[in-house]
Design brief:
This protein is mainly beta and 141 residues long. A six-stranded antiparallel β-barrel has the order 2-3-4-7-6-5. A hairpin with a 2-residue loop joins strand 6 and strand 7. The longest helix has 12 residues. The radius of gyration is 14 Å and the shape is globular.
Length: 141
């Protein structure tokens, strides 16, 4: 897991725990980021970690979907994945938090679109704000 403030270089954001292909895709998406005025009401910070989501519509025996987190805020996160996930569906996100503990967070998929052949980028929002990802904590890292 790597946590990086906005003023650190993208090279330092590469996480040793993620597959090389994922690091490449995340770096390419970061380099192509929109540089105009953002409509976001809260800042997101780079937070690269593997996570999983189990959709409420999945069968009980279905394995969770693997996602790779790219950035996070108290209200949601951005990710990449090999799977086209269904928009508007709710689920349970399992992610390692900033203190190293595994968290389970109720969330809803907001976006999932193809970014590169065979890879999708998306976002989800948390059904309740997650205080451990607040801007003050992330700024101190």
């Amino acid at each position: 897991m790597t946590l990086v403030s906005d003023n650190q270089s993208s090279a330092s954001a590469v996480s040793a725990g993620l597959p090389q292909e994922v690091d490449f895709i995340l770096s390419a998406l970061e380099a192509a980021q929109f540089s105009g005025k953002s409509r976001r009401h809260t800042c997101r910070r780079t937070y690269r970690v593997e996570a999983s989501i189990k959709l409420f519509s999945d069968t009980p025996q279905a394995p969770p979907w693997t996602i790779y987190v790219r950035d996070i805020s108290p209200k949601g996160l951005g990710f990449v994945t090999r799977h086209r996930l269904p928009l508007g569906y709710g689920g349970m996100l399992t992610i390692v938090g900033p203190h190293g503990k595994t968290l389970k967070i109720d969330c809803t998929l907001l976006r999932c679109r193809e970014a590169v052949q065979g890879w999708f980028e998306g976002s989800m929002y948390f059904n309740r704000e997650q205080g451990m990802f607040d801007a003050e904590f992330l700024k101190r890292r």
